[in-house]
Amino acid sequence: MKCVEMKTPGPLWLRSLGGFLVFAIALSGVTGRSDALPLEEVEEKLTRHTRATEEEERLSALYGDNFEGDIVLPTGSRNAIRNFNQKWTKGVVPYVIEGNVASKGRRAISAAIADYNRFTCIRFIPRTNENAYVSFSSANQGCYSSIGRTGRKQIINLQNSGCYYKDIVIHEMMHAIGFWHEQSRPDRDTYIRVLFQNVKSGKQHNFNIARGSTTQQLPYDYHSVMHYSRKAFSKNGKPTLESKTSEKIDPADELTSIDKRKIAFLYYCEGRDFNECQVNNGGCQQTCLNTEGSFRCTCRQGYNLTADGKTCKQTWTCATYGCQHYCNQQNVTYEPGCSCKTGFKLNDDKRTCSDIDECASGQNSCSDICVNEIGSYHCECPTGKILANNRTSCIDPRPYICPQPPSPLYGSNDCDKPSYQPDSVCIQSCPQGFNMIGDATMTCQDNGAWTNLNTRCEDINECETNSGGCNELCFNHPGGYNCGCNRDGFSLDKDGKTCIDTEPPVITLCSRNIAVPTLPTQDFAMVTFEEVKYTDNVRATVISGPPSNIANLPIGIHQVKYVVADEAGNNATCAFVIQVKDVEDPVFSGCPASRTIYNDQGVFRVLVNYTDPVASDNSGNVTVRVTSPEGKMFPFGTTTVTYLATDDSDNYAICRFTVSVTRPAACPKLADPINGHLTCFAWAHGYACTPHCDEGYEFLEAPPTRYVCGPSGVWFPNATVPSCYSEYMVTEVNSECKQ
């Protein structure tokens, strides 16, 4: 018989990993979980991650394990675009940036917010006290967001390594204001093809069509910031999406014109179409023309649009421009301009010239007769007159000339000739409110004197007839009159004649703002306030106000308003505020007492049954929040349970008690092996020991690698550790083993 030494190496997973991590994995194995990775595979994955490029980080973060890679689904709905409750009120999105977001991430968030505020009607504003708001965070892995407004705090997660880019932040913010991925729209199969053979296993659902969404009747946008990249979720580096048209799938790093129109349609932004020409002229060198959903560049006459679609190239020179008279071109980069000789004008073709008829157009200085010429004109005089030395005026050769005629007081005259020569005629006139006394016509005589110099304008006294139609007072003045009023508080009406009361009543007593508490145990207060008092120049009454100055008012703020009016409709207002304050705290009934529970079931958590306390409040509205283990399953140790009741006025009450869970007995001491010892350490629910032999000794057969005692107080797999023996040599003598 051959004797051999037997040594059991132990389980591979226990031998490969050391320390407490090994024990945690071992416990996972005991309970049926086997999802831990071997150390070699963990190290390999960490090495690959260290070598990842920036683009790999972006794709890994954006195309994560959430729905469609970066969406946190709202409960019960995928139809964010059509659900008005998930739209942000008036397009205003309050936000906060959590302290775990690094400076690079804050710069990307600021740049994205600036684009939304500049190019759309969406306004991201810092949060004050709003219940519904967006919180930018880097607490978790991946880039993800909810679809639309959730009505409470909602996270836009931006992991530190791969999400700190403006386009990714814009993308996640589009989700938050209510938009799905572009390739999820119901008509996408008309424009793209999904290559499922290249998609990672288990990720095919990320390419499903969002059946409840809407296209908003907008074109498919291959460049939308919401579009997947060509190789999203690829398992082999090959494309997972391809275009069915000549348009390439190339997501932009900023909002496209169609993205902006989506926002305009969903949030009813004014005009709906975004005018790209308003920003840097659309990049056009000369003229930018806005179109529905886009824009285009054009050039002025004499220029052609170059291949880049934005700059213009000049094509004209004076040699070929065709000017009839003169051509002007100071810089070859600008279109030439034509001009004409004196006496000519440039025609509508901007090239040829035609004669200006100075006589017909009035562009001459002739006093009597104008005769047109090609490129010019000359003046002539009628019979009996000669042309003066200035060649434009005609003068009477007779020796006498009348002086400038005087105008009647308050009146004026209009003469047919400025030179006041014999036979010149001036017509005198008086303004409205005056009568003319004398002849209106003045004539320059051959002796150099005017006729009818005694004509005058006499004022009409309108107040002498029916007091000028004035209701009270009439004041005459040269050329007219004015009405007035002799009673205090009265002024002229729009007709300028009738006197009306324009002075409103005067409030002499108006109650101040009042703040009172509710009656004990009640949700209202009995309030007494001062009645309004007033005076008026005629007579006034209260036309609006409370029927009594005593009222039972519920909790809240109430505005009291008196309106006092006089017979002419002038009114005055007395307004004040009554605030009924709720100062009573809620009350708990049935608050459980603290208790101690013994857990002898061999489990980590135990169900503790108790009746929930009931909260009440005088306002009738009370909210209770509880802090306790889920399902009332309590772990070992002492746990504090807190019930917090609050009302709408921030009054509160607290019910607090403790639940202590203890084990009936501690783990018994495990005896050291003979010629050996144990290495033990405590864990959350007991102890764990590893057996060892002293130097020169060893186990005949390998014992369990680890002995564990848990909540049950029993050692597993058993409570007996085998002894250690000295090393020995074995020989075979007469079929017996001898040392």
Explained architecture:
Helix 5 (103-119) packs across helix 6 (166-176). It is built from nine helices and 53 strands. The strands form 21 sheets. The protein has a six-stranded mixed beta sheet with strand order 1-5-6-4-2-3, with helices on one face. Strands 31-37-36-34 form a four-stranded mixed beta sheet, with no helix packed on it. It has a four-stranded mixed beta sheet with strand order 39-45-44-42, with no helix packed on it. Strand 46 (676-683) and strand 47 (686-693) form a beta hairpin. It is mostly beta strands and 739 residues long. The protein is flat, with a radius of gyration of 50 Å. The two termini are 15 Å apart. The chain has nine domains: 54-274, Collagenase (Catalytic Domain), CATH 3.40.390; 280-314, Ribbon (Laminin); 318-355, Ribbon (Laminin); 359-395, Laminin; 412-459, Complement Module, domain 1 (Ribbon); 463-501, Laminin; 506-578, Immunoglobulin-like; 587-662, Immunoglobulin-like (Sandwich), CATH 2.60.40; and more. Residues 1-53 and 74-81 have low confidence and may be disordered.
Which term fits the overall shape? Answer: flat
Provide mean pLDDT, rounded.
84
Order of strands across the main sheet: 1-5-6-4-2-3
Class from helix and strand fractions: mainly beta
What is the CA-based Rg, rounded?
Answer: 50 Å
Tell me the β content: 25-35%
Helical content class: 10-25%
Helix count? 9
Largest sheet: 6 strands, mixed
The separation of the N and C termini measures 15 Å
Subunit arrangement of the protein: single chain
What's the number of structural domains? 9
